[in-house]
Design goal:
Blueprint: E1 2-7, H1 16-34, H2 38-43, E2 47-48, H3 56-59, H4 67-88, H5 90-109, E3 115-116, H6 120-133, E4 138-145, E5 147-154, H7 155-174, H8 184-203, H9 214-224, H10 244-249, H11 254-272, H12 276-289, H13 297-309, H14 313-326, H15 333-346, H16 351-364, H17 368-383
């Protein structure tokens, strides 16, 4: 009654490796089984689990029992495999796919003696790889139950609870004694292999990570579950009504750190989704809880730029100063000094701070036009300095 028909993942390159695997599966079925070709069937045998040959752990993956079996598997491979292939790259993906089938075949043959055909074990691994890479992505489902409609479910819910837990663990136990040709052990072997390999590749950074994958979720959970002492936050400059000395002398409120840290992670998520208004709202809440907290480098700069573009110059200047306090050695620190100096000189009339930032910008900028701008602004700010 539920059939996946699409996902929210936007591909960055054509998933050629997945297209090749789908084509091979269809071609082998048409030649070996559709045409009932004994020579091809002998060359691409199923996995004889009772007494398997090594090559059968590869060949069985391209054989299917009937056209329904083939189409169901290819649908899942298309829905989940394209995105996984895009993330891994075609060559790595094909190696991962075939290795998953081997592991699924070993899991099946260790508990069964019957023949095995089908790509289900490999596709199970691809499915959990999709879950690891895109746990927050929504999957579009076709639902038919008196009515035909579509709905969307998060990958975590659909793959984790429905496909793995219900379809392959709970439901088979409820149907014990009922004859079935579903190779649950192969599925579970594939699911486990796909999950562990994908998590491992992300953990050792063999694949690029982002704030939406499963490793990021695990690390956030760890930080929110008692790792507050390991939080990396740097004191940011306070609002103008509070002196830096007062902020530096404040004791850290341990009760506020965990909520502030959670807000920090939520801000990063909102910025990645380009929900700037919500990100800035959460940023201000975070500073109320702990004015020492800063965002990661790029995100902190994004918030400052947002304030500046919306003519909230005081907030922009404070966000830039928080960036400079936290990341003084950043490659773009001199340019941020220029931004802060411009704001204090042109809009906030705080000329001592403008001079401080602009002097540092002049000494650090490498682009002639920017350095000239900083020097001109510095000369203008120095004229406006109050008499000593």
């Amino acid at each position: 009654m539920l059939l996946p028909i699409g996902t929210d993942v936007r591909l960055h390159s054509p998933p050629i490796g997945n297209w090749i695997l789908i084509g091979l599966n269809v071609l082998v079925y048409l030649i070996a089984d559709g045409m009932d070709n004994p020579a091809v069937q002998a060359a691409i045998p199923p996995l004889h689990a009772g007494l398997p040959s090594l090559h059968e752990y590869l060949t069985y993956q391209f054989r299917h029992g009937d056209v329904t079996h083939l189409l169901g598997n290819m649908l899942f491979l298309w829905i989940f495999g394209n995105a996984v292939c895009d993330r891994m790259g075609s060559l790595n993906y094909v190696i991962f796919y075939l290795s998953s089938g081997v592991v699924a075949g070993v899991a099946f043959s260790s508990a069964n003696s019957s023949d095995l055909v089908g790509a289900s074990g490999s596709i199970a691994a691809v499915t959990t790889a999709f879950l690891v890479f895109y746990p927050r992505v929504h999957i579009t489902l076709l639902l038919w139950f008196f009515i035909v409609t579509t709905l969307q479910l998060p990958a975590m819910l659909l793959i984790g609870l429905k496909i793995i837990l219900w379809d392959n663990i709970i439901s088979p136990r409820l149907d014990q004694g009922v004859a079935t040709n579903v190779a649950y052990s192969a599925h579970l072997g594939g699911y486990a292999f796909g999950f562990l390999v994908s998590m491992g590749l992300l953990w050792i950074r063999a694949l690029p990570r982002n704030q939406f994958d499963m490793v990021a979720i695990v690390k956030r959970w760890q930080r929110r579950s008692g790792m507050v002492a390991q939080v990396d936050f740097t004191p940011a400059r306070p609002v103008r009504s509070v002196t830096a000395t007062e902020v530096a002398s404040r004791p850290i409120d341990a009760a506020a750190v965990a909520p502030a840290l959670q807000l920090r992670e939520d801000i990063v998520d909102r910025l990645a989704e380009r929900d700037m208004n919500e990100a800035v709202r959460l940023y201000e809440q975070m500073l109320q809880l702990d004015p020492r907290m800063v965002l990661p480098r790029n995100q902190q700069l994004e918030v400052g730029n947002y304030y500046a573009q919306n003519q909230r110059y005081a907030e922009a200047a404070r966000a830039y100063e928080a960036f400079l306090a936290a990341y003084p050695a950043a490659a773009d620190a001199a340019r941020v000094q220029l931004f802060a100096g411009l704001l204090y000189n042109r809009y906030l009339a705080d000329y001592p701070r403008a001079v401080t930032h602009l002097k540092r910008a002049v000494g650090g900028l490498n682009v002639d036009s920017e350095r000239q701008m900083a020097a001109q602004e510095l000369a203008a700010a120095e004229i406006r300095l109050p008499p000593q």
